[in-house]
TrEMBL record:
Top-tier EC class: oxidoreductase
GO terms, molecular function: carotenoid dioxygenase activity; metal ion binding
Required cofactor names: Fe(2+)
Name the UniProt record assigns to this protein: Carotenoid cleavage oxygenase
Pfam hit, one: RPE65
Alphabetic keyword roster: Iron, Metal-binding, Oxidoreductase
């Protein structure tokens, strides 16, 4: 029988100590009974959950492979209180949903990342910050940046990384937060012993062979872009500013064995426009677009730029060097999607229509190191986002990549063979929406498909969520296991697999 502990916490100390049940939301009444505004990003499965749950021996359809040992973690926004202003999906407080696999069984827990902002709002009993979709005053933004602060609340809601024995919850306009495993308690802000002097990207890249982690940090104020290398022990060994033409939104990047691959794309910061009610980030095709190849341990002035067609990329699959060329694979949009600048006024139809005009597809850029030329080509015409692959080959020749492809009501997992294109598809079912899918390697496995693909799937018909496990050797087959979760998992952002050996 499933054993479920519904834990309700007060703000607590940094150690995340449990307090008396009922103190957080009084069984969710405090949050649930409060009137929440009508908002696309607070409706259906975007809506937050209000309890922190621990559940063991989850019911399983199929069979969990007994050798599958580790924890699948997914970060995402989950506002603690009804928001101020024009709520945007990016604004919610970070919440981690985790499924632990061991001995053919599965358990679940979800925990808020108890940031300083989360604790202040919890103490006040209400939201205190506005968000990305609200106008900002330039003088306020400038003053905060000069003080080394972000103009927005650090929600730690975007992604996760495991490096030098630490689990970090990431939010790219500030420092990460360290979490403890296996309980997901929040320890606090983490700045690598004070050695990291800039905001840390939500998408760091780890070279599995060297153990180095490469990170970037962007800002609307100079220096617009900084780059650091962190060794396998967590020591920051190298930092350099990287010259870019204007401050741009640079959400992701890539690495190869020799280079860090940067994307200067025309999603330009415009705080003046935001102060007049416009967009804080706007697409300016006249700015141009280019790919920069920076030697891993080089200084910013050593970067080599390759001009490309104007576009926007949220997420990169991978990059690698081959035959004197650098090959970059990413989900390319023709422009910056205006749908992400909307919130309260957007509808399902609006969101689908606007996003379709900016529909991402899997794309390949080939930078010729000898001639300086770039070849650009789509691998497919299917909608493709949340790209993942076997993290052990980051920056090296990759055979397989995986993306989520979706319409407003259903989603599929697509498998690409690089550089050929799409080869296989797993359809999750009508009315079933999947999130980012991670690859969990089989113990002693030697190939990129010798393992499992794991994701959360929301079923609109019964308003419930599952954790789904697919054998990567044949993604067209039915899942090997479908694990019923004790509560709904709202749509979120990025996921991580942590091997059981470190738990």
């Amino acid at each position: 029988m499933s054993s479920i502990s519904r834990r309700c916490f007060l703000a607590g100390s940094l150690g995340g100590a449990a307090l008396l049940p009922g103190e957080l939301f009084a069984d969710a009444d405090r949050a649930g009974a409060t009137k929440w505004p009508e908002n696309f990003f607070l409706s259906e499965n975007f809506a937050p959950v209000h309890e922190e749950v621990t559940a063991d021996d989850l019911p399983v359809r199929g069979k969990i492979p007994p050798e599958l040992n580790g924890m699948y973690l997914r970060n995402g926004p989950n506002p603690q209180f009804p928001p101020l202003g024009n709520y945007h999906w990016f604004d919610g407080d970070g919440m981690i949903h985790g499924v632990r696999f061991a001995d053919g069984r599965a358990s679940y827990m979800n925990r808020y990342v108890r940031t300083a902002g989360w604790k202040k709002e919890h103490e006040a009993g209400q939201a205190l910050w506005t968000g990305f979709a609200d106008p900002v005053e330039l003088k306020d933004v400038t003053a905060r940046l000069i003080r080394g602060e972000s103009p927005f609340k650090n929600t730690a809601n975007t992604a996760l990384v495991w490096h030098h024995g630490k689990l970090l919850a990431l939010w790219e306009l500030g420092f990460p937060h360290e979490l403890l495993l296996p309980g997901l308690e929040t320890k606090g802000l983490y700045s690598f012993g004070g050695a990291l002097r800039h905001a840390m990207t939500a998408h760091p890249k780890i070279d599995a062979r060297t153990g180095e982690m490469m990170v970037i940090g962007y800002s609307p104020l100079p220096p617009f872009l900084q780059y650091s290398v962190i060794d396998r022990t967590g020591r920051v060994t190298h930092t350099t500013p990287v010259p870019v033409r204007r401050p741009v939104f640079m959400h992701d990047f890539a690495i190869t064995e020799q280079y860090t691959v940067l994307l200067e794309l025309p999603a330009v910061f415009d705080p003046y426009s935001s102060g007049r009610g416009g967009e804080f980030v706007r697409f300016d095709a006249d700015h141009g677009a280019r790919i920069g190849l920076l030697p891993r341990h080089g200084t910013g002035d050593e970067i080599r730029w390759f001009e490309i067609e104007a576009c926007f990329v949220y997420h990169v699959l991978n990059a690698f060097e081959q035959d004197g060329k650098v090959h970059l694979f990413a989900c390319r949009m023709p422009n910056y999607p205006k749908a992400f600048g909307m919130s309260a006024t957007v509808s399902v139809e609006d969101f689908g229509e606007i996003f379709d005009r900016s529909r991402p597809v899997m794309y390949r850029w080939t930078c010729d190191l000898e001639t300086g030329n770039v070849q650009e080509e789509p691998l497919d015409d299917a909608m493709a986002e949340y790209p993942r692959f076997d993290d052990r080959v980051t920056g090296r020749t990759t055979r397989y990549g995986y993306v989520i492809s979706a319409d407003p009501y259903s989603s599929s997992l697509l498998q690409y063979e690089l550089p050929i294109g799409r080869v296989r598809r797993h359809f999750f079912g009508r009315g079933r929406m999947a999130g980012e899918t991670v690859f969990a390697p089989r113990p002693e496995g030697t190939t990129e498909e010798d393992g499992w693909l794991i994701t959360y799937v929301y079923d609109r018909a019964d308003e419930a969520s599952e954790c789904v496990v697919i054998d990567a050797r044949d993604i067209t087959a039915s899942p090997v296991a479908r694990i019923r979760l004790p509560q709904r998992v709202p749509y979120g952002f990025h996921a991580l697999w942590v091997d059981g050996a470190v738990l």
